[in-house]
Amino acid sequence: MASQDNYWLRARARGVTRRNFLYGSGVAAAGSAALLAGCGDDDDETSPTAAGSATTAASGSATAAATTAAAATGKRGGTIITSKAAPDTGLDPAITVTNPLHPAKAYSHILQYHLTENKFHLDLAEKFEQADPTTMVFTLRPGLKFAPQVANGRALTAADVAYSYGRFPGTLKNFGSEVNGLQWNWMDSFETPDERTLKIKLKTPYASAIPTMGSSAFAVVAKELVEANGGKLSDVMNAGAGPYVMTKRDSSGARYERNPNYYKHTPAIGTFVQDGPYIDVWDELIIQDLAAVEARFLAGDTHIYTQGIDKLKAQEFASNKNVSVVKATFPGNSQMQLDNEKWAAHPKLREALSLSIDRTKYIASIHLGEGQLGSPVGPIFDSVLSQAELKELQKFDPARAKQLWAEGNGNTVFPNGLRTVSATFAPTTNIDFLKREIEANLGVKVTVTPADLAAYVAIATARDKQWEIFVASEFSLVTIPDYNALTFYIPTGYGAIFGNQRLDSAIPANAEFAKTALDKFNQQAQELDPAKRKQLLRDMQIYFLKEFRPALPMPVGQFQYAAHSSKLRNYPEKEFPFGNAGSGPYRAHNLSFA
Amino acid sequence: MRTYVLRRVLLFPLLVLAVSMITFFLIRALPGDAAVARLGAAGAQCDTCFDQVRKELGLDKSKPEQYWIWFSDAIRGDFGLSTATRQRVSPELRDRVWNTFQLGVLTIFFTLALGIPVGILSAVRAGKPVDYILRFLSILGLSVPSFWIATLVIFMPVIWWGWTPLDNYVGWSDPLKHLQLLALPAFILAISGSAYTARITRSSMLETLSSDFVRTARAKGLWERVVILRHVLRNSMLTLLTVIGLQFATVLGGSVVIETIFGVPGMGAWLVFAVSNRDYQIVQGVTVIFAMWFVAITLLTDVLYAWVDPRIRY
Question: Which member of A38, A252, A455 has the closest CB to residue B169?
Fold first, then answer.
């Protein structure tokens, strides 16, 4: 491969003849023609092969049901080129969750969870059984192997899965893992009665166990590589049994090529294909500039547009015949986090703040009319409150807001007004909008401090908050699907990290509320009956919204758009935003070229 | 002259040392350190998470100690490990310096190839329509930011022809493609420089054109081309030399944006990544190289200036 790519080796091999000398001169003379010629399409699709279409179902029961849908057929071969803005800051799936491509390509997971259908497909496992509310039993497929580069391609056993899941407490303690404890601290112990059987004992019943196990972090790794690298895989290119192996990682990007040891999904199920993914190679380019990302995508140099697009951009892209635009229900959320240490003892001020924001205008202005009211549960889940209910709980009443602010001595409690932060790396029109709304309808000065990513995170997470309000938005599902919004409302999640909603708070009103919130959260998390759990989640949302804390949900878009090359087939149109949550384009094995 | 050069050369390490110290402490004064940038908000989920990573990155030591560790490695050519990617900085820095250097050389080539002829033409046609047009274009070149031109250049072909001049950086493994990929960013980076060069060339030439020796040359019956190129331009080059030297140094500033847009893996693009990730080792490494580059170029310019013009004594 390298020798073919290298001009000098090619030149030396062929020597200089009169013919190619003249040819070379011609090329030099026609510089502009050569410039154009160098930019052609370089897809190397091969002839199509039909995928198996048989179906299978997982046994057992869970909150999420196993599905029997077959993979759509596609053409085998080709290279998908995608892009990202910066090099990897780590490759360990149990530490770094911000890169969805690597764990999806270089690692395998026990199952794949499809949020929009609330269904899962078994991946490394061929059978699942919920033996009792606190015991999950998985039976692995026979003949599983790690990639040839990993532990000499040895067999992958239940002990490897148990080891991988058992790493989380250590990676958090020793390496400051990004994987939130919400994802794994429900697991108590593991048993591996034989090489193919994994028994997971839970501390308590946990309704989100299956969705959680589909997430990127639950990748299965080879123990010997972890141990050989000081307990982490941050710089290890391959340590798993995924459909691909990482063959390049440098400042220009990364490359993934087929893993010859990859197991069969027999019969094909969901987005899995019987003989491994259709695509041969994934190339991930590093393109820092957003305009360059768009230009290269529109020119057909990349196949997946990795930036989020709004309605206007979607319309613009849709007019390009080389581009397909997909639209799915918006999965993310946006929260105005309050510093609960400051606001806990002032219910009138919290209510005043909420009443001062015209959310209808917010939707018209920020979401171009295509938005919806937010809630402590993300808009994609069926337990979310209806828009009518949310409207009742998120009223706009500037007169009442001013009255409550005066009654609560707002100007005494916050003598310098309210402080917040805007991100220099993301659109901040919502911050500008909220500043105007609060200043106009509450009569309080809002000071906005711009910050780059590292400063933004530092300011957001510092225990001594230099702000009173902080708007955090998430546009995809990066942690547990169930709790993508709810994590902002509990003291074991971002409620504490951002909002100082702490069980150990010196302010009784904050500590008591944190305890109540956690109790309510745990109650629904342990409820395995979907109907009962839904009701608990609804009650919980109403409780938070009536308390106007620990955060105020902000409106979100109704839809999320994405764009991909029209050459691609089987792009997961409903689940494209779920990169880290178990499904999405990087996990779809049936993605192929037309 | 020799004493002057010696003094400047001796000052060189002191200057670089000062730059490295200032950079070291300034980047650390920004809110959010490398641990925060690496872990993100999730790092706050445990009390020790940030501390663990700080320890791993050596950020738990005092700042003077951190500086000393960095400095003692740096003078041996080891700029340490990137705090964001945990890759060695030095090998990549070497590659990136080379890429930026190539971009710089090509930029200067375009700057001179465009700026000097335009300046000459503008001077010899002073007050005529050609002069007005060229001066207008020069002002335009100075006024329009290069990142805006770059964005147009990468975008407009996509809109018109579904094609963009951007491509994967290949280096000298494919020389034709390599030059093709570097030429456009270099040309765009050269626009403002050439506009400035054109204006300086014009004013310098106009001043020289009114000199007695030019009148004498013309009176001798020399061809106008010989008068302009051999007598006027050569004497005007003194001013130009300083400008060119400074422009080679300021190419570094422009490269930050242009490299990012065109995907040239140079020092500028790296610096953007490093600052936002609080990657101290990269920021320090790149800044030191930038400083050395700048100091070397200005020294070279000063020496050349004295060499070209015997009247100049240091």
Answer: A252
Same-domain check for residues A133 and A213 = yes
In a domain, A328, yes or no: no
Q: Could you write out the DSSP letters of every residue in A468-525?
A: SEEEEEE-S--S-GGGTTGGGGSTTTHHHHTT---TT-SSHHHHHHHHHHHHHHHHHH
Verify that A240 and A180 share a domain, yes or no. Answer: yes
Q: Do A295 and B44 touch (CB under 8 A)?
A: no
Q: What's the CATH architecture for B91-276?
A: Orthogonal Bundle (1.10)
pLDDT score of A481:
64
A591 within domain boundaries: no
Q: What is the pLDDT of residue A478?
A: 54
Q: The domain spanning residue A511 has which CATH number?
A: 3.10.105.10
Predicted confidence at residue A36, as pLDDT, reads: 28
A30 to chain B, any CB pair closer than 8 A? The answer is: no
**Interface contact flag, B168 A181, Cβ < 8 Å:** no
Which CATH number characterizes residue A237's domain? Answer: 3.40.190.10
Residues of B in contact with A23 (CB under 8 A): none
How is residue A528 written in tokens?
A: 């395995």
Contact of A497 with B45, CB cutoff 8 Å: yes
My answer on whether A20 and A136 are in the same domain is no
Phi/psi of residue A77, nearest 5 degrees: 110, 175
Residue A88 has pLDDT above 90, yes or no: no
pLDDT at A479: 55
Q: Among A94-103, A112-121, B131-140, name the most confident range.
A: B131-140
Query: Is the ipTM here above 0.85?
Result: no
Q: Are residues A435 and A397 in the same domain?
A: yes
Q: How many CB pairs under 8 A join A and B?
A: 179
**Cβ–Cβ below 8 Å for A299 and B155:** no
The Cα of B250 is separated from the nearest Cα of chain A by a number of Å equal to 21
CA A581 → CA A216, A246, A476, A525, B250, distances in Å?
A: 6, 21, 9, 18, 46
- State which residues form the domain around A19: 2-37
Chain B contact for A33, CB < 8 A?
A: no
Burial class (CB in 10 A: 0-12, 13-18, 19+), B88: middle
Residue found by looking up tokens 């290279």 in the block: A79
pLDDT-wise least confident of A134-138, A451-455, B212-216, B218-222: A451-455
Could you identify the residue written with the tokens 């391959």? Answer: A238
H or E element that contains A113: strand A111-114
Query: Which residues 453-472 in chain A show a CB within 8 A of chain B?
Result: 453-461, 472
Digit-coded pLDDT (tens) for A376-416: 998 888 889 999 999 999 999 999 999 999 999 999 999 99
CB B286 within 8 A of CB B93: yes
Q: Are residue A527 and residue A479 in the same domain, yes or no?
A: yes
Q: N- to C-terminal Cα distance for chain B?
A: 6
User: What residues of chain B lie within 8 A of the CB of A12, using their CB?
Assistant: none
Which of the two residues, A264 and B31, has the higher pLDDT score?
Answer: A264
* B57: closest CA of chain A, how far (Å): 11
SS3 labels along A41-58: CCCCECCCCCCCCCCCCC
For B5, how many CA atoms within 13 A lie in the half-sphere containing its CB?
12
How are the residues of chain A apportioned to helix, strand and coil, as percentages rounded to the nearest 5? 35, 20, 45
Tens-place pLDDT, residues A508-536: 999 999 999 999 999 999 999 999 999 99
Domain tally for chain A?
3
Instruction: Tell me whether residue A366 is in a domain.
Output: no
Q: Residue A367: inside a domain, yes or no?
A: no
